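Colleagues,

Please find the record for the two-part complex below.
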Amino acid sequence: MLGSIYALVALGYTMVYGILGLINFAHGEVVMIGSMIAISVVVTIGTGSGLPGPVVVLAGVGIAIPACMLLGALLERVAYRPLRDAPRLTALITAIGMSIVLQNLAMIVWGRQYISFPPLLPSEPHAVLGATVTGTQVIIVMLTLALMGALLLLIHRTRLGRAMRATSQSPALAGLMGVDVNRIILFTFMIGSALAAVAGVMIAGYYGQAHYHMGFMLGLKAFTAAVLGGIGNVSGAMLGGLALGVIESLGAGYIGALTGGFLGSHYQDVFAFAVLILVLVFRPSGLLGERVAERA
Amino acid sequence: MLAVRSLQLGYGAIVAVRGIDLDVGAGELVAVIGANGAGKTTSLRGIAGALPARTGSIVFDGEDITGLPVHQRVARGMSLVPEGRGIFARLTVAENLDMGAYLRRDAAGVRADLERSYALFPRLGERRRQLAGTLSGGEQQMLAIARALMGRPRLLLLDEPSMGLAPLVTRLIFDTIRSIAAERVSILLIEQNARAALELASRAYVLEGGRVTLAGPSADLLSSEAVRKAYLGE
């Protein structure tokens, strides 16, 4: 469940890395802005409009997606494109800078407090194979799988996807084929941001709240998921996200029993970063990655 | 077809090409020869748009394209086969060829040309589903040329097509270039193998230190004392 959200966000990291070799640390903030916009929309039209809950949420998603795509495009155009030929560290620091800018912008617009997502989605529990799931969780997982399927089709079966893969291998060579490389890069940011928007709405709907600082931890974890799967590898990001979600949930569930109650489930966050360290030490190329070695 | 005037190119503080004039007529095969570091590859990259011009002009088909980005020059019918087999190693052979036809919208024509590529280079047909990175050096060069032809270019820019290839493969590549030229595609060929290039081309330029030092019909250059000494090893 949590894993699907990580996976969607990790895709944004990995696609941008695959093409630019840039870790877009502002990506978590795009998710956060997606959450915030969706909540604003839902609260505005949801209270007293009499529309059914899911329709209102869908409207929120429908507005968050284009808004985030615009934001992603803006980031690329304004912050990253001028630095295309600059040393990588410069772009990385810029990404961290953009992350801070967006956080503070969100704090000014939406305030410092947690803002809550109205309970519009089905939350009554069902028992499935001994586990307890809610309708919302089922929707999240199904939607994630559908989006991943669509993304894989786009990348592997369409002309645009072929141009994206060619550009990630060699932008110069792709240009010689007549590919407008700048457009492909812009497009990659926009697709990643659209997925981030969906993830943002999911996480707001799941936890029932959003906060201007939520993108930071989420972004780091999704980045971990991307590294776990092999950064630059799209299927790897999907796998890494799902795996990280499972590791975290199991870890949080059992950590009390394992440490004799010394550490509780609020140590959940430890697992993601333990995974990051282990992967970086023992298999820096990730589960499915072999491209990192080639680039280094 | 192509008219280059006082083109100057460089990298950072280095000036690699110091103002060259160069023409390629319609359907003509023109060669550029010269030693390592003479500015041959740089010139070609400048013409293709992969490197911005410092000064000078490039006119293609009567249109000044000096300021156009590389993908728009491709759209106007120019295609560069980069040196060292620039292929997409992690795309299949068929996908590489499709990339060559990236700007074309006539699906039927592209399919027909794909079959033509496989007829021209049967090895590519046999390996169409293989990743291009797994091909041999000669096959990769065939793929790079076939891919450039997929775009139906009117001007083909070839950068050292024989580099690092076995003599037998080199002969095959040169035969292919000759047959492409016979179909009235203009070709600008850069080669270190000066003799082969001069035998193939109708005219040639000699580049030294970023300047054109000699130019003329290939036959004249082949018999010129200076060329024979410096480039033909006689």
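The first helix of chain A runs from residue 2 to 20.

Comments are welcome before we finalize the supplementary table.
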